[in-house]
């Protein structure tokens, strides 16, 4: 298998490589769904993990991003990004395969420690791969049409991840043999096999020869993004987003299983509902990012995401009821829709703001800043969760009259719910930092919502004859265009205010 750079990358080779990038993302997402996320948290809980251990497992991928610094030196020295990425990510998949042996370890006390150590090694290798891959794709892919391409890539990876997560949840819940931990062995082994297929696809993506920078050290080039005022604002925004999203996000599965008593199979269906919404709207977000701006998308998607985080505080008030599960599905669907726009827009802004030929340093700066501040969020949240484990904050009204007296509880914060409230409050600062980032001309949130609705209607029209009939009955697109034309004509009339 040839892994050295290509002398020339033709247009046909580029299109061929894009197809394999989509396959790589799909196989890698399948591996991640069978080994990470909900499955990993469930496995850790089965091994007896507490809030601090869950926080550490969530912090490790972020903290491992600090290895981007030596990875930059490795990439710059060898200038063989495909070889570095494929070797590193394949080694990580070998470690995933070794995780399948953990349930068989006789020393039960050390199984959790071994899990944490393996996760650190897997994340470290993934960080090295990401550094090489980011620089590789930054040079390989043309800037025009990035939104549509990454939307397609994310769509397939998300769809495959949904299938994998559902399969893992049902496998673990319905495992017929004892002990039940052996179900995780089967899931991890399948994840490793999917990961090897991802490595095979990635090795077939063409790599142009790297643009060399003979002047300056790695450290001096890494400092270049900090001298760019607009990119520096973007780094602060990304740091604040990493803190806010990772403060409560890693503990959502624990909250659903421990506090609400849901099974792992039910939790995986909630996750899949979120990812299905993510996949179905990624194409719409991608078209909007190319037509409008990524910042405009974030100004709509971020408030929606943080509103859902805050809604988790009230979903089981005053106690779990028959509407709790439907409300959780609704929250997960909205969060999935919003997270699709957030992930796509964040990635696109980073690629657009990074100068051509300097992608390694600029994109690594995003990962490094996010790891330094975002990696502390789950650890801090785990400490807060342990400290507030037996605490409660209630808001109630006291009613007293000549006939009766009593308290009416409005809401109560307990244990994990404190983390959701804090995360939602941090979202206000994230929105403030977003306003400091410049990306072309500003577009209002209303325009984004209107265009999103129009794109959704067009998609329904293409997919369904019923949708086409509705489109003929309710021609929102033509009404919206005519309204814009009328406003423009009115303003152009002599004597009208501008």
UniProtKB/TrEMBL annotation:
Coiled coil start-end: none
Entry annotated with the keyword ATP-binding: no
Chain ranges passing through the membrane: 25-48, 54-75, 84-106, 112-133, 154-172, 184-203, 234-256, 262-285, 297-316, 328-349, 361-388, 408-431
InterPro entries: MFS, MFS_trans_sf, Sugar_transport-like
SUPFAM superfamilies, sorted: MFS general substrate transporter
Alphabetic keyword roster: Membrane, Transmembrane, Transmembrane helix
Protein name, UniProt field: MFS transporter
Taxonomic source organism: Caldimonas aquatica
